[in-house]
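Ticket opened by: R.M.
Priority: normal
Category: complex prediction / small molecule

The reporter submitted a protein together with adenosine-5'-diphosphate and asked that the result be attached to this ticket for the collaborator who will pick it up next week. Submitted input follows.
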Amino acid sequence: AEAQLRQAQKMEAVGQLTGGIAHDFNNMLAVVLGGIELAKRNLPKDAEEAQRHIDNAAEGASRAAALTRQLLGFARSEALAPEAIEPGELIAGMSILLDRTLGDGIAVETQCEGNGWHVWADRVQLENALLNLAVNARDAMDGRGTLTISCSHTPLDEHHPGECGPGDYVCLSVSDTGSGMSKEVMERVFEPFFTTKPVGKGTGLGLSQIFGFVRQSGGEVRIDSAVGAGTTVTMLLPCHAAKAEDIAAPERIGPQEAP
Ligand code: ADP
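Result attached by the on-call engineer:
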């Protein structure tokens, strides 16, 4: 708990710092990308070499823009907008996106359908988190393997499906059959900017962003990993009983409350 609190404070500091920079960068990059686009349109068709340089510049700028977007997401300080979400439905709605992200060599298995449990979380952030976990899994599997998304409920035997009380969680797990993580990597994965991926591929913000989102939602992230066997990342999110009146009037929760 001590370490988690330190982590949260560190993230808040990094978040404030990067938020300001990322915001300005984003605006400047919009100018750069706009300029490149215009230059490209005005080039004569046979200026192949210049086209190539311009395409390279555009690609670099787009990557920088993607990074600043991720930084902005990480530094996001506006309140989350939680709602009751059925994980099975959310994941089914993401299946095309997931298939496209993972590629042909990776089979996707989901075990979340129709159990009636709802989580109380921000939909956009939750989709983002799942997508980030899928990208990490894909990278760890080198394009081949199985990704499994499963859902469970804690405490597992105290309630009937669909009935959940305060302090109960729905657990969303993403497992891969990839490289796994060493103890050294495990210890640092939630650190902002910690990455083992090559420059341009990893930002080291995926898991710290997920950590921040899940904590702000009143939940917890757990990781199990074995080198050479694979990794399971589990998000425990507050369980929500699906009552129509609650779904109709979602409350807003503020940023970063230490549990
Ligand atoms: P990034 O993916 O940009 O590197 P993350 O914060 O998402 O940033 O992950 C940090 C590091 O944790 C990765 O660089 C990788 O070493 C490790 N990691 C994350 N997910 C997995 C996974 N599913 N399997 C193996 N290693 C992982």
